[in-house]
Amino acid sequence: MIPEMLVIVAVTAGLGLLVALAGLGAMRLLRERSIGVMLAVVVVVTVVATVGGMVALTLKMIIEGTSRDIVLSVVAVGGLVGLGVATVLSRRVLAASRRLVDAVHAVTASGEFTPPGGLPAELGTVAGSLDQAYRRLRLGRERERALESARRELVAWVSHDLRTPLAGMRAMAEALEDGVVADPETVGRYHRQIRLEVDRLSGLVDDLFALSRIHAGALRLSRSRIGLGDLVADALAGVEQLARAKGVRLTGEAGPVVPVQADAGELSRALRNLVVNAIRHTPGDGTVVVRASAEDGTACLSVADCCGGIPADDLPRVFDVAFRGEAARTPSPDGTGAGLGLAIARGIVEAHEGTIDVVNSGPGCRFEIRLPLSV
Predict the structure, then answer these.
(1) Helices 121-178, 184-215: crossing angle, 10 deg rounding
(2) What digits encode the pLDDT tens for the residues 244-300?
């Protein structure tokens, strides 16, 4: 009995091995074909191995007559059922994959992708990944368009803002060169005006260079442990003359110890830009308050002015390049205010892994810089 069982096992195992090798060879040849074809090969191999084994066993057992016909009929029907199920399943997989491919081909120029429904789990995962990828592409395109629009606006603004002072300097220089202006008082006034315009243009070039470094990711910080109280004092001292000329009162408030790890020069520039912006848009006899404090584990620098507030629609655009918000804040009479200071401040703060924001508060608005406290 045992030798007979060994023979049966050997026969079925040998037949199954041959069918498996044939199936692996077929799958290797068809590895670049559709999933449905490969799935059909798998099912065919399984069915053929099972049917072949059953047929071999039936013949080995020497079943005669009606009994053998019944067994072979059952095996044949089982094999046909398996092949039929495999065919239906492969067609469904192929149809699902075609729907996914058609959905990809139907993607519009704007990147709108609509995942088809009724997909198998794996294809559904692929469709979800494609949807996320197309969303990221749309966001990237929107950011690219926004940057391109900002670049064009900046170029137009720079061209406009450079043309006026250059034209004035040329006119004054020609007047001095041609001797049209000869009295010492007027000559001195022309020289002072030319010097003032040169300083303004130098400041504009410096701002453009700083902004280009920020956008290029080339801003290099030399961090050290500094106190925000000293930073506030230095910023107020640097803009005191501008505030006195405008008739604006400056007030500084700082906590006892507010240490941060930051580049003192760059962070001071960001704070100074905020204070200068506040002074320019605060009317005479107004007050600008600069505070440094520690709140909830973060260092906070705030600059509050009396500008009258910013419309809600303009708040998200305050830190955009070249945005001056004339609809909400009257430009200063001296013609200053390039529209780059707040954009530079945001770039510097973000390079410090901090945040900068603006809210309407009281008689004006309040700019806030938040940085991690140094431990």
Answers:
(1) 170
(2) 988 999 998 887 777 888 998 899 999 999 999 899 889 888 899 999 988 877 889
For residue 147 the two structure tokens come to 């940057």
Token pair 């692929």 is found at 126
In contact, 200 and 222? CB cutoff 8 Å? no
Give residue 119's Cα distance to chain centre.
Answer: 31
Contact 293, 229 (CB under 8 A): no
Other beta carbons within 10 angstroms of residue 184's beta carbon come to 8
- 372 CB burial (10 A radius; 0-12, 13-18, 19+): middle
Q: Residue 125 phi/psi, 5° resolution?
A: -65, -40
Sheet holding 298-304, edge to edge: 249-254, 287-295, 298-304, 364-372, 355-361
User: Is the whole model's pTM more than 0.70, yes or no?
Assistant: no
Residues 262, 371: contact at Cβ < 8 Å?
Answer: yes
Each residue's pLDDT tens digit, 62-111: 555 566 666 667 666 766 776 677 677 777 777 887 888 888 888 877 77
Q: Beta-carbon neighbour count of residue 243 at 10 Å? A: 20
